[in-house]
What does this fold into?
Amino acid sequence: MSKEETFQDLSLNLPSGKQQLWRWLYTELRGAILDGRLKPGARMPSTRSLAKQYSLSRGTVAVAFDQLQAEGYTRTEVGSGTYIASGVPEGLLPLTRKPVTPALPTSKAVFSRRAQEFLKGVEVTPASHAIGKAFRAYEAAIDLFPVDLWARVGSRVLRKAPRSLYGHGHAAGYQPLRRAIAEYVGASRGVHCSAEQIIVTSGVQQALTLAGHFLLGPGEQVWMEDPGYSGALQTLRATGASIVPVPVDNDGIIVKAGRKLAPNAKLAYVTPANQFPMGVTMSVDRRLELLRWAASANAWIIEDDYDGEYRYSGYPVAALQSLDKSGCVIYVGTFTKVLFNGLRLGFMILPERLVEPFTSARSLVDRHPPTLEQAILAEFITEGHFGHHIRRMRQNYAERNDILKIAANKHLSGLLDVEHAAAGIRTLGWLKTWKSDIEAALQARKLGLEVEPLSTFIVKYERPPALMLGFAGCNPAELRRGVSVLATALRSC
It folds into this structure.
C-alpha cells in the first residue's frame, strides 16, 4: 500500500454549514498530522484527486495546502509532490482531537526578588459590576456623569481629528490638553505652571511609578503619611526605597516627627488638601514647615491632589505647589475620580528641571497616553463642560454627604460615629462596639457592602477602629439602604 493510499483511509469530519471549506479542510488535515494519523514523510494526494474525493474546487484545496505549508506542517518537493514535514510545530488552535505533544520538564523559573517585593500586599481592584454600590470609596458618581454630552464632544472630535492624531503622540501628552490643564489648575487650585511642565499620565499610579523609579535609589528614605494611601506606599516601596511612616494630626503630616525619624529622606508623599484617609487639611504653618525641610534636605515632595476640588464649605484650598519657591514639589492629579474611572488619564506638574528627563522616562513606560481620548478631554475642558461638571458634582456630593450623616445618626447611633466630611468623596465612621475594624468590614462585606477598615492604611501608628465609607458614587436611595444594612451587620457583634 502506498503512502498516498494510506491517506485515502482517513475519516474527516464533515464541514459545518458556517465554516469556510478551505478552513475546514486545513483544520482536519492539521489535526490528522498532529495526532499522528498522517505520519512524517507521508505523501499528500494531488489537489485534483482530493478535490474530486470531497467534492471541492481545486482552488479551495490549494488554499488549505498553502496554509499548511506556510505553518510548517508540510513541505513541497519540485516535480515530486507535497509531503508531511518531518518535524511539525505544536498545535496552537483548539482541535476536536487532542494532539500528541512531547513531554517537557516542569519549569522552575521564579519571580525576581524585586518582583516579589513589588507584589507584596498588592490586591487587584475588581471590575465594577454594579454602579454606585454602597460604600465604594474610589468611584465618582457615574450615574450623574453627562454621558450624552461626552459622546457628542467625542463624536465631533473624532469627525474633525486630523490624521496625525491617529499616529504617534508626544510622550508628554497632547499639547492642547496640557494647555487646558495648566489653565484650569492655575485658576482653581492656584498652581503656577506652564503647559510645558505638564506630563499626561495613565492616572496617579503611573505618575508615582515614574517619580519613584526616577527620583529614588535603593534604600533611600521616603516619608509616608501614616495612615496614608496604600497605593502610593506599595508603589514607592516597590522601587526599593525605605518607607518611613510619619504620623498625621489635625494639621496634616507632622514634619517635626519626620525630621526626627529621617531628617535626610529623599522624598515626602503628602495629600495636603484632603489627607487620605483622615480627611484633614494641612495647615499653612505645616505646609511652610514641610517646604523648608525639603529645601534644606534637598528632598522632593509629591503632592497628590486627587479630590481637592470637592470642598463643601468655602473655596478649594490652594495647592501646596503654589507656595513652592525652591522647585521641589511635584503635583499629581487625576481625572478618573472627578469624571469616571474608565478614563484612566491623569497628570503630573513638574519643576522645570525635571521636564526633559521625565518626558524621556515617560516614553519608556508606554510611549504616550491614548491621543484620541486626550483630544476629547481637552475639548471637554476648553468648552467649559469640565468646570460645570465639577460645580454640579460639588453640590450633589454635598447633598449625599448630608444624607449619609443624617441616615447614620438615625440608624447607626451607638454603633458607628460617622464624620461629616469637609471635603472629598468619602469619610470615616468610628466603631463603638467592635474592637477590630477588619472583622467589622468582613461582616459588612458578607452583606454586600463595600467598606474598608482604617487599619489597612496604617503602617505603624495605631488608631481607634474605623470604617471608610464612600458617599459620592452612591445615589441617595443606595446610601440609605447601605446604612440600614450596615446597622444590621454591626449589630451582629
Q: What stands out?
A: The domain at 388-491 is CATH 3.90.1150.10 (Aspartate Aminotransferase, domain 1).
